[in-house]
Specification:
about 475 residues; alpha+beta; seven-stranded antiparallel sheet; five-stranded antiparallel sheet; 16 helices; binds flavin-adenine dinucleotide
Length: about 475
């Protein structure tokens, strides 16, 4: 790495409309921080661009200074890919604009927008695009590596609803990718992560939804978990695709107005329901879940889409310590249910959860080679989310996820959801997500747009050599 001297940084400052932040500056610590409190990295320089021109200036500067580039969208990568040591961090937190075209039912979304920014702007027009479950998550990282959430069974993953993207590539050019322009790059962006440049604008397809939907949580005591999972397995196979129904092993959380004081902290299995259609239809569809077994908690009803989209926010505070894995299992059969119930009854901390997500419907109807996102089989996505507050718990919690995740993996499809893995020690498994054909296609796109691997803080693809 070359030395970045004061004069060069002053010249950069003159050309950037946004902020240039150095170690020691008052905003440096906040700008380098990310969601996962385990990540503590120190970039050489941080640029907070205001627009694509600023991004281009920052990337060109980094290339000539020999600094690799990290990109912070929402900073929610648990692996810490939204920051770096010894590099230039492009922090997109000043680029969160969302412009909706209600007639065309599309939204143009800046690269630093959070899911909440997108939901709020689109709901003003009674529209929404499929995204994730926690409002503070960045739309960028989520989209570029997949994106599951409430609307997925009906409308597909977030990346399946991407219409085009504008990005600044390693040579500082602003390039558009869509089905009609730079098609191979567009293919790679839908699953290949932040390998190819800094996306400054995403364009998404929107659907009519809200402002009210039906949804909420039905919670069962942990000793009913086996029966509930067996029921859910059969129920979701025929339930309308408007419905999302994730099972979540958790300790009843302190969610105001939802979880009564006396239940908080009790081990339970929640079914998190969201119906993307008329609320009355939704309430009818979820009735069998509410009538099954003996729930300890039933918080289901008509609810604003914006509220259900941020219901889990308080369970995922910024700065919490996190270690995760996300595996696909082919079936929720008796063996899987036994294992999940065993792990779900033994969570390492009160903030940790296991989420069991039906992966079927629209995402599985997309052809496997249509996008770089590879997993298109009917299956269940199981998310082991280890979260804790006290650094003294770190080794114990990591070990718990590694060990329980290993048991889960033994019955998995071999595939992981890259957006959920803390992958540092398991690069081979990450690579295995892309089969040889897909990986060589990705490597060719990487070689075309980032031959020197300037963008390497991601699930990294080595540029092809000719
Ligand atoms: C609390 C929480 C809840 C979550 N819920 C869901 C969920 O419901 N569904 C789901 O699918 N996933 C979920 N995730 C996972 C999430 O999709 C990933 O963590 C994702 O990487 C977050 O994107 P980000 O922009 O916030 O991440 P960052 O940490 O900012 O970036 C992640 C990666 O994306 C790249 N990147 C970021 N912005 C850009 C850009 N503009 N252009 C190019 N590359 C960029 C970075 O280089 C990095 O490699 C959740 C994560 C957390 C922490």
């Amino acid at each position: 790495m070359q030395d970045v001297n004061d004069r060069a940084i002053d010249r950069l400052r003159d050309r950037i409309r946004g902020d240039v932040i150095r170690p020691g500056d008052p905003t440096y610590d906040e700008a380098r921080s990310v969601h996962n409190g385990l990540i503590d990295r120190s970039p050489t320089l941080i640029v907070r661009p205001r627009d694509a021109a600023d991004v281009s200036t920052a990337v060109t500067f980094a290339g000539s200074a020999g600094l690799p580039v990290a990109i912070k969208g929402g900073g929610h990568s648990v692996a810490g890919h939204g920051t770096c040591d010894d590099g230039l961090l492009v922090d997109l937190s000043l680029m969160r604009g969302v412009k909706v075209d209600p007639r065309a039912r599309t939204a143009r979304v800046e690269g630093g927008a959070l899911l909440g920014d997108v939901d709020i702007a689109t709901q003003e027009h009674g529209l929404a695009t499929p995204s994730g479950q926690v409002a503070a998550t960045g739309i960028a990282g989520l989209t570029l590596t997949g994106g599951f959430g409430a609307m997925q069974r009906k409308y597909g993953l977030t990346c399946d609803n991407l219409l085009s993207a504008e990005l600044v590539t390693a040579d500082g050019r602003l390039v558009t990718a869509s089905a009609a322009e730079n098609e191979e790059l567009f293919w790679a962006l839908r699953g290949g992560g932040g390998n190819f440049g800094v996306v400054t604008t995403f364009e998404f397809r929107l659907y009519e939804l809200g402002p009210m939907v039906a949804g909420g949580i039905v919670g069962y005591p942990i000793d009913q978990a086996t029966e509930v999972l067996e029921f859910l397995n059969g129920f979701i196979a025929t339930a309308p695709e408007e419905l999302s129904a994730d099972a979540i092993f958790m300790m009843a959380p302190p969610i105001d107005d939802i979880v009564p004081q006396e239940l908080r902290g009790q081990n339970m299995l929640g079914v998190f329901l969201r119906y993307c259609g008329p609320p009355d239809d939704g309430l009818e569809v979820v009735r069998p879940v509410r009538e099954f077994g003996e729930p300890m908690l039933d918080f289901v009803g008509p609810i604003p889409y914006l509220t259900i989209q941020s219901l889990l926010d308080q369970l995922n505070p910024r700065g919490g310590l996190n270690y995760w894995t996300g595996e696909y299992i082919p079936d929720l059969d008796a063996k899987a249910i036994e294992l999940l119930t065993q792990h779900g009854s033994n969570l390492p901390t009160r903030q940790s959860v296991i989420q069991v997500i039906p992966f079927n419907g629209a995402p599985t109807r997309v052809a496997s080679d249509a996008t770089a996102f590879s997993h298109r089989e009917d299956s269940w996505l199981v998310h082991y989310l280890g979260q804790w507050e006290d650094p003294a718990d770190t080794e114990r919690c990591r070990e718990w996820i590694r060990s329980a995740g290993g048991d889960l993996r033994a019955m998995g499809t071999g595939d992981v959801y890259l957006n959920l893995v803390t992958d540092e020690e398991d690069v081979d498994r990450v690579r295995a997500v892309w089969d040889d054909r897909r990986l060589s296609r990705l490597a060719a796109v990487k070689a075309e747009y980032d031959p020197d691997n300037l963008f390497r803080f991601n699930h990294n693809i080595t540029p092809a050599t000719t």
